[in-house]
Design goal:
Number of domains: 2
Strand order of the largest sheet: 1-2-3-8-12-13-14-15-9
Radius of gyration: 23 Å
Strand content: 15-25%
Structural class: alpha/beta
Largest sheet: 9 strands, mixed
Helix content: 25-40%
Length: 383
């Protein structure tokens, strides 16, 4: 049974109560919330049902409802992240409060207070973007992808490689002209054939991939700039710095940062580099380390007890997003190693020689009670 209301009353509903008839795909420039609220797909129905169930236990006020329903995807995804992490924490039988009180000597409130006394800790959620994202360029990329989606190509997927990005929007007629010529010659080309479009500083290469059966969907794989070096450490560091514990006053208990990264390329080695200035599982505290927890041979940010890093958590990726907890070995208020049922990493200190140890935890969706197959519920137009 679909639940359309939340505990705080009709004015704070996260989704409208009406019969949905929108069965098509979401345009790439469509706000995430708008599609989630309007789509009749079974996957979006499952998500709305789940979100409203979670929201029934969450203090949804007008500010949160505004952010969750925002046309700004960053605001919407940040609010979604707060809601889903609140439920994830509660699903571990923890006593969780959302912004209940500030730390001493501060009016700013971290997102969560978990438990009380020695077993309790505070936590804050934040998002880390894709490396080197330029919002204006990303918007134009989305518009180009939408042009491709509107081109009829039942027998072939149209792949896009954004080799170089410009500053002005390419005319839709020019995109259609290049792609149309490619489709007219489709029987004589392979995926290795590239059809270039060069205009206004852009260099885009199109290619085709034969479908196993006809489908309405035209857009295939989208590549972004070939094999350029991607710095996955920088956005992690930037997001962590914005959530230092001192932002919330004098901490009197462990403080944990929950960081959800949109970067699909980062690995565990990037997390170690960002936090400890090294990718090694054994290290000494030396002057050459430049990380969030230590720099120039000295420890720093000791009021941050641990960092939880999640990769690509979103409405359509709730089953098993890569997730790990990293303890600060120099924390003023250490977090208990078994505080959360999650893959956990901590460095043991043996006379200034630090050695990595691990604890294996449960999958994200398993804790949250997510249906493993929800992403595959009747997605129309897919091959």
């Amino acid at each position: 049974m679909l639940i359309f209301g939340v505990a705080m009353g009709d004015q704070n509903k996260l989704f409208k109560n009406y019969v949905r008839t929108r069965s098509g795909r979401s345009p790439h420039r469509c706000p995430h919330y708008e599609f989630l609220d309007s789509s009749s797909w079974k996957v979006t129905e499952y998500l709305r049902n789940s979100i409203n169930t979670w929201a029934a236990d969450f203090p949804v006020d007008q500010d949160f409802a505004r952010r969750f329903k925002s046309r700004n995807d960053k605001e919407h995804l940040a609010a979604f992240f707060e809601l889903v992490m609140f439920q994830w924490l509660k699903s571990q039988m923890l006593d969780v409060s959302f912004q209940p009180s500030s730390a001493p000597a501060s009016n700013r409130k971290p997102d969560f207070t978990i438990g009380n006394g020695e077993a309790g800790f505070r936590a804050e959620c934040t998002l880390a973007p894709m490396p080197d994202i330029v919002e204006g360029v990303e918007k134009m990329k989305s518009e180009i992808e939408d042009v491709i989606e509107d081109i009829s190509s039942p027998d072939y997927f149209i792949n896009i490689d954004f080799v170089e990005c410009g500053q002005g929007m390419i005319a839709k007629s020019l995109i259609k002209k290049v792609v149309g010529e490619m489709l007219r010659n489709a029987k004589n080309v392979t995926m290795e054939h590239k059809f270039p479009l060069i205009d206004k500083g852009w260099r885009i290469e199109f290619s085709l991939l034969k479908k196993s059966k006809p489908t309405p969907r035209s857009l295939g794989v989208v590549f972004h700039g070939g094999f350029n070096f991607i710095d996955s450490v920088k956005p992690l560091m930037s997001s962590l710095k914005s959530k230092r514990a001192r932002n919330y006053g004098d901490m009197d208990c462990p403080y944990v940062i929950f960081l959800n990264s949109a970067d699909p390329y980062f690995e565990l080695s990037d997390i170690k580099q960002a936090l400890f200035g090294t990718t090694n599982d054994n290290f000494k505290l030396t002057a050459d380390l430049q990380g969030y927890f230590c720099s120039n041979g000295k420890v720093q940010n000791t009021t941050v007890s641990a960092v939880v890093v999640i990769k690509g958590l979103g409405p359509y990726n709730l089953v098993d997003p890569p997730m790990s907890l990293w303890h600060n070995p120099w924390a003023t208020f250490p977090l208990d190693h078994n505080a959360l049922n999650i893959d956990s990493y901590f460095f043991y200190d043996n006379q200034n020689q630090y050695t990595l140890k691990t604890i294996t935890g449960r999958k994200f969706g398993e804790v949250l009670g997510i249906d493993d197959s929800y992403r595959h519920h009747d997605l129309p137009g897919e091959d």
